[in-house]
Amino acid sequence: MTRRAATFYELLGVGREATADDIRTGYRRRAQKFHPDKYRGKGDAAAIMAQINRAYEVLSDASRRTAYDSDMDAAVQGSRVVPIAPLGIGGWPWYVLCATLCVILLALGFIALRTLAPQRATYVPGPAAAATLPVEPVNAVAAPEIKPWQAPEARAVPLADDPVSRLVRDGVLAPAQRATPQR
After folding, report:
1. What is the tens place of the pLDDT at every residue in 103-142?
2. Reduced to 3 states, what is the DSSP secondary structure of residue 114?
3. Which residues contact 39 (CB under 8 A, 6 or more apart)?
4. DSSP labels, 129-181
């Protein structure tokens, strides 16, 4: 956030309706307080004193003071910019209307959520829960009993269970076509 520059009246510690004597008194008080010989180590005393001298120079002359006041009024009027709202609407009634519509839409959404979404059963632990929970679930299907795992039975493998014997047994190959292994 930027800091606003002090006006000449604030620098001298007087009001805008101050007389020439009030301006002179304010200048003398500030000059004694912020003089570089007395204001050592507390900041840039020379710069503060230069600002005080410039303020007194402008405000002590009546024509320059009038010009300064008119410039200050123009600056204040220029800083009051009316915010432009979209479509030419705005102001606090529109903010209230928008906030009200938001609350209504949120309420309708919550109501729709509560009525259309399935409700989950809540479980309350303790002895009171046993009395409230149904003994048999409403839409339950009986599941088959799960038996523990058992090792499969060992079966006897015939000796002629190699692939060629299987093809001969199935009739794909004739017994004469079988190749004899060479030793």
Report:
1. 999 999 988 888 887 777 666 666 655 555 555 656 767 7
2. helix
3. 33, 45, 48
4. HHHHS-SS-TT--PPPPPPPP-PPPP-PPPTT-SHHHHHHHHTSS-GGGPPPP
Which residue type, as a one-letter code, is found at position 142?
A
Is pLDDT at 183 greater than 60 in this prediction?
Answer: no
* Contacting residues for 45 by C-beta, under 8 A, at least 6 apart: 34, 35, 36, 39
Which tokens sit at 110? 């919550």
Tokens of 67: 């010009």
Q: Which is more confidently placed, 87 or 41? A: 41
User: Do 49 and 57 meet the contact criterion of CB atoms below 8 Å apart?
Assistant: no
Q: What is the DSSP string of 37-49?
A: TTSTTSS-HHHHH
